[in-house]
Amino acid sequence: LNSSYRVPFESFRVPFVDLQEATNNFDEKFHIGLGGFGKVYRGVLRDGTKVALKRYTPESNQGLQEFQTEIEILSFCSHPHLVSLIGYCDERNEMILVYDYMENGNLRSHLYGSDLPSMSWEQRLEICVGAARGLHYLHTSAVIHRDVKPINILLDENFVAKITDFGLSKKRTELDQTHLSTLVQGTLGYLDPEYFNRGQLTEK
């Protein structure tokens, strides 16, 4: 992060050596997934906190802008249905995001082609309602996510839904200035058709 950006978020910085220790130097045994930003690892901090780490990889289709957006949004947004950002690391040319670890992974893994036990309809409804509450909070906080999909809805140990992955999000202040998104972004199959066809991003 550049110096002007770093100041408000200094309290969220985590030393790289702490993350090396938490993951046994990013041992592949701790590797649990791969996303648009990079590899995802599980780990345990010195105080016993279980964490998930997203570590940028050069072949990723995301980068510094998404890294900064994620930190900025999650540093001021807090809600029971949003994943919690514990911190970030930008030492040694690294870009690493650190979150609370979600014991039950992402919603997609429970819905498609998995050996995991089937969820009850009551659980599914609670997850839908939880995700909707998280989105409502974001919209009332002037944030539009732009990439809501099952893999970006995580489930904690009690199957409480937590929205994650805010790298493509837009703040309403940006919309007030431009009215149009300069580039349609998101995942095909989950994009709002009106936004996809017109390129205009609104709260609706």
From TrEMBL:
Residues 26-204 form the Protein kinase domain. GO terms for molecular function: ATP binding; protein serine/threonine kinase activity. The keyword Nucleotide-binding applies. It comes from Solanum sucrense. It comes from the Eukaryota. InterPro entries: Kinase-like_dom_sf (IPR011009), Prot_kinase_dom (IPR000719), Protein_kinase_ATP_BS (IPR017441), Ser-Thr/Tyr_kinase_cat_dom (IPR001245), Ser/Thr_kinase_AS (IPR008271). This is Putative Pto-like serine/threonine kinase. Keywords: ATP-binding, Kinase, Nucleotide-binding, Serine/threonine-protein kinase, Transferase. Belongs to the protein kinase superfamily. The keyword Secreted does not apply. Pfam families: PK_Tyr_Ser-Thr. ATP binds at K54.
